[in-house]
Amino acid sequence: xxxxxxxxxxxxVALLLFVFPYPTPLEMxxxxxxxxxxxxxxxxxxxxxxxERIEQIVIQEGQKGQVSLKQTFCDPVIRQAAWVGCSLSxxxxxxxxxxxIFYSSSIFSSGNLSPNQATAILLGCNCLFSATSAGFLxxxxxxxxxxxxxxxxxxxxxxxxxxxDKQLTTFELVMCIAFLFAY
Length: 183
Description:
Layout: H1 3-19, H2 25-31, H3 34-44, H4 50-62, H5 69-74, H6 76-93, H7 97-102, H8 104-109, H9 115-140, H10 142-166, H11 169-182
Helix pairs in contact: 1-10, 2-3, 3-4, 9-10, 10-11
C-alpha cells in the first residue's frame, strides 16, 4: 500500500537533484551571478536575445504577464516550464498524501482515537502548516523546500509503512503527522 508512493517520491527527489540542479534565472539575477545567468540563458535562447531576456526578468518581478493557451503549447520555453509544473503536480499527488488523508480515520482509530478526533488533528496540522508555509518559503526558497520536504516525506512515508506493517499504532500516528508536515 505504501510502496508505490515511495517510488514516485524517490523519482521526484532524483529529478530535482540530478536533472534540475540549477537555481532559477530570477534567483541568479537577485544574487548577482550574471555569468552563470548568461550561460543558462544561452542554453534556452539565441545569443542575440539573451540580454533582452535578462532585462525582462526585472519587469516580470513586479507584474505578472498573461500567457495564452496557445503560447503554453507552442512556445518551447513556456511549454517546457508547463511540463515541469505539471510533472511536479502529478508527482506530488502520487507521493501518498491522498492515501494518508483517505485512510486517516482508520489509521488514527487504530491509535484509540475517534474519527472526529482524527479529523480535528488532521485539519489542525493542515491549518498550522499552511499558515507557516509562506514564512518558510520566504526563508528557504521554493526549490530548497521542495527538495528537502519531498525527501523528508519519502522517509516518513517509508517509516509509516513499516510501522503499519509491524502494527506499531502510536509510532504510525506520529509518522503520519510528520509526513503531513513534510508534505
